[in-house]
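One record is given unchanged without comment:
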Amino acid sequence: MAWTKYQLFLAGLMLTTGSINTLSAKWADMFSAPGCSDVPKHSFSHPFVQAVGMFLGEFACLFVFYTLLCRDRRSPEPQMNPGPSFNPLLFLPPALCDMTGTSIMYVALNMTSASSFQMLRGAVIIFTGLLSVAFLGRRLVPSQWLGIFVTILGLVVVGLADFVSGHHDDSHKLSEVITGDLLIIMAQIIVAVQMVLEEKFVYKHDVHPLRAVGTEGFFGFVILSLLLIPMYFIPVGSFGQNPRQVLEDALDAFCQIGWQPVIMVALLGNTVSIAFFNFAGMSVTKEISATTRMVLDSLRTVVIWAVSLALGWEVFHGLQILGFLILLLGAALYNGLHQPLMDKLPWFRSRAPEEGGGAEERERLIGGQG
């Protein structure tokens, strides 16, 4: 069945904005500018400020939701289901997980390449699968367990590629690259906890996806914005990558933006892209399928890698291709993308998961991720 022009537009929008989201964040990290009070020129290293911008983009999904709802209600035959009323505080625990995981990942992005950053985020499959078995009582079929083990193998290969490239990378020390990779994987544990919390407490209330993302974005934006104040006074020694060596120096970030306004373009690219990415991703699921969304999400890793190579942000390593292909295979096995082929071979047919193994449940686990 051929796609309509609208479906092609949605697929292209999701692929483009998803790629821009990571690339713009990495682009911001590559700028250097003077700071406040005649502080000499230094790199723009403000992961928590970047995370605030990302949550602002998620928060914008709430405005999109109410705009669409108002437009729908004015039509002769309203079709949009806003969902039942709910307590917004339901979203506070997953929002705190999102805030913590996102902040850690932006710290890690300062230390490693954009392509490795995107590839290593595939580790979320491992922890989501294990936590869903432990806390949601879900039973994974053999292909999903195989997908988890294949994903672990892929992570090892990508890690080896970074270890090899770290010896030849002038922009990052080997220790920084390894630390960054470990932080990304650690962040996926927190992201997996977020997904399990959403599955257990939030989605049973049938909340509209845009409303869910926007509400989490609201909590993340408000809480992290307030936390920037104490972060300004918390010393972290040599771990701090800003001149004052504090957890986050938001004033330094604003001063650097004043000296180098192009940084704001990169930050806005991250904010705007995350809003459009969530909208496009949910629309792709509705108009095409959750499987298509998963495939497009994997393709953006290729786009990020290709653009990074073209811009000279990183050097080519064959191990990364192998690692990406293995991670792609692991994701395909876990998400059941192999099933249509297996169904044509009677001796390979496997029983569908009894609890929560369908595309709808897996779609809930990928909603709202930047």
